[in-house]
Amino acid sequence: MAVVVGASMGGLLAARALSDSFAEVLVVDRDVLPDSAASRQGVPQDRQLHVLLARGREAFEELFPGLTEQLVGLGVPLVDLHGQVDWINDGHLMTRAPSSLTAVGISRPLLEHVVRTRVTALPGVTLATGCEVTGLLATPDGARITGVRVHDRGAEAPREVRADLVVDASGRGSRTPLWLEQLGYPAVAEEQVDVGITYVTRTYHREKEHIGGLLGALTNATPEIPRLAVVAAQEDERFAVVLCGMLGDVPPLDDAGMAAYARTLAAPHFAEVVAGAVPASDPVLMRFPASRRRRYEKMRRFPDGLLVMGDAMCSFNPVYGQGMTVAALEALLLRRVMAGGADRATRPFLRGAAKLVDIPWSISVGSDLRFPSIEGRRTLQVRFVNAYISRLHAAATADPVLGAAFLRVVNLIDPPTRLLAPRIVMRVLRGAHPQPRVPEEAVLQH
Questions:
Q1: What is the pLDDT of residue 434?
Q2: How far apart are CA 200 and CA 129, in angstroms?
């Protein structure tokens, strides 16, 4: 039997992977889960805009064959990320071109509901809701985890659940570091990057004339203007708009304030929707203080029978939209390593997951270190890459090959080293330095 701690996206993906190797998989969550696509208390971020990168959609499809077609049947739009989205990077409007980079425009509650329905239909998978894992069971020497303590709501004391494998997918608030210390293990090493992000998401009714008929737009934050925004098409003919401030900058929640904030951005798309579209929900504010990575793979001692994945292992800066994609890739890894048996899965999984995390972590942290007030080690490589990517953005206003190469990296299809391939470097060096191609009315007012 396997026990998964947490029934959010990471836990559901873990349960799907484990169902191939275990006759019984128990998923434990504190919430009483909704029967429909609704937000819930245990996932406060689910009302914010979520992005499933192109590689993430592919990974979800591997785990749940036919999922993309199922979502389309529910009214979810398919989005060509290069041909149907405007990318404004450092003020430069990337030229669009048709591509195979396909994403789904979907709200987090709907995606989680569909995935949860698919997972609970699997033989042997059970959800235990309204209860909490309060600790680990282990052998006397602590070398192997043998189960968990589960405290049911209303019960006087926790009960013991024996398991051959425990997977912690409980998210950013994971208590595995504390549980390991209680078993006599040293503290896990952590890396943290303080970004001080506050973001506000609101949905609007989408009309065909909005943002020129495109399905999305994005503008990134820069050291000069630490603000960014995304507008993305979703199910039910809606747009989700997120306005985001870094380093303590806080977007307002009132209509006039949101419109004024949107007008300070490097393109008019966001103000057009915020000021001109009919709201479909109230604005919701969320704070994200820091990216955090726990380096379990570096621990000299780690108990067998325990794995950690998703945000419990690494919580990424949400502006890069990497979390669900990385969790899906970790689930595919989990399915592979479990083919060799639970007894031999711990170290291969932790090391493999660390390698999966390395690239998106380096992308997000490297980009964040462009901001002088963010603390971190700015190696020569980090400084070079940031300068090079800035030049690539300028050249991509006229060269769709460069835009495609960049998008394949940020969507975790290709490794970042692909941007340094000779043919790409030559195109960047040959590229002129065109002025940003955003309209004059979008000149920054911040």
A1: 52
A2: 29
Phi, psi of 197 (to 5 degrees): -95, 135
Residues near 143 by Cβ (< 8 Å), separated by ≥ 6? 303, 304
- 393, 395, 362: which is closest to 379 by C-alpha? 362
Dig out the tokens for 40 from the structure. 């819930």
146 pLDDT higher than 50: yes
Q: What is the pTM of this model?
A: 0.94
Distance of alpha carbon 205 from alpha carbon 274, whole angstroms? 11
> For 432-444, what is each residue's pLDDT tens digit?
555 554 544 443 3
Contact 326, 317 (CB under 8 A): no
